[in-house]
TrEMBL record:
It is found in: Membrane. The chain crosses the membrane at residues 1-20. This is histidine kinase. One of its GO terms (biological process) is cellular response to phosphate starvation. It catalyses: ATP + protein L-histidine = ADP + protein N-phospho-L-histidine. GO terms for molecular function: phosphoprotein phosphatase activity; phosphorelay sensor kinase activity. Residues 40-257 form the Histidine kinase domain. It comes from the Bacteria. Its main location: membrane. Keywords: Kinase, Membrane, Phosphoprotein, Transferase, Transmembrane, Transmembrane helix, Two-component regulatory system. The chain holds residues 150 to 419 of 420 of the full protein. GO terms for cellular component: plasma membrane. Its EC number is 2.7.13.3.
């Protein structure tokens, strides 16, 4: 009997140990992820804040100078404050995503309507930057999704296409589909992404060339937000190198969403 009780006690200790390990390990990992995120965010915010501080100090040094002569102090401070503002909005979106926010209200619409709205905005932007914009809506593709979120997704992809393409570059937006998928492609003939970074670009704060991207106002958060939006719709997003040079970002969305966000948004359908 004593032997039996010892066995039971040992077995329960073993089970509690295994259970504790199974719950503590993921908890530890998530705390570690959160710590790394906060560290990255603080680091990324420190640089523009330092620029603003030094430029404002420069402004105070010669108070008798006219504002027109102070452009070299004012312009970088303004640019960096805009970058902080963009970064904080992006961080807020990602924090909501981490808290398990769903994609929200869904509706059925033709992806070409989204494409048309984006094309109006970007044909103008491209023209201003002396770049060529091609819009190719291949067919009617009705999908169910959150229009606002998908609009934001395309803004991120199109902004990147413009940002990483030189003057006189080309940007193309393609709307396509299969029987059960909507497909969005954003192509450019810009600087391209290195083979080894094609997956990394979707991780937070990842930038191929930090110095260059800092100058163009990049925050390294756009594509992680894009991925979150696509995940919510139960779709996929991939980056690849075009053989002609440049980048292709392809998004595939199920016509009827089945992702985790979709579940949260429409529990009654599951
Ligand atoms: P960022 O704000 O720096 O553009 P993103 O998360 O949107 O951040 O993109 C991450 C990185 O992926 C960018 O810094 C850039 O190096 C690379 N990238 C994204 N889109 C493109 C593109 N169309 N062409 C070349 N590189 C790109």
């Amino acid at each position: 009997l004593i032997n039996g009780s010892v066995m039971v006690i040992l077995a329960s200790i073993l089970i509690s140990y295994i259970l504790a390990n199974a719950t503590i390990k993921p908890m530890k990992e998530s705390i570690e992820k959160e710590r790394a995120f906060l560290q990255d965010a603080s680091h990324e915010l420190r640089t523009p804040i330092a620029v603003i501080q030094s430029r404002l100090e420069g402004l105070l040094r010669n108070p008798e100078e006219k504002i027109i002569d102070k452009y070299e102090y004012i312009e970088p401070a303004l640019r960096e404050s805009r970058r902080i503002s963009r970064m904080v909005s992006n961080l807020m979106i990602l924090t909501r995503a981490d808290a398990g926010a769903s994609m929200g209200k869904t509706e059925k619409f033709d992806l070409r309507k989204l494409g048309d709205d984006i094309a109006i905005i970007y044909s103008e932007f491209a023209q201003i930057q002396n770049k060529r914009f091609i819009y190719t809506p291949r067919k009617e593709v009705v999908i169910e999704g959150n229009y606002e979120n998908l609009h934001q997704l395309l803004i991120i992809l199109m902004d990147n296409a413009l940002k990483y393409t030189k003057d006189e570059g080309m940007i193309e937006l393609v709307i396509d589909g299969t029987k059960d998928k909507g497909i969005i492609r954003v192509l450019d003939n810009g600087v391209g992404i290195k083979e080894e970074n094609l997956e990394k670009v979707f991780t937070r704060f990842f930038r191929e060339d930090k110095a260059r991207n800092r100058n163009n106002g990049g925050t390294g958060l756009g594509l992680s937000i894009a991925k979150w939006i696509v995940d919510c719709h139960g779709g996929t997003i991939t980056a690849s190198r075009r053989k002609e040079g440049g980048t292709l970002i392809e998004v595939q969305l199920p016509r009827e969403p089945k992702g985790k966000g979709a579940k949260a948004a429409q529990p009654e359908k599951e």
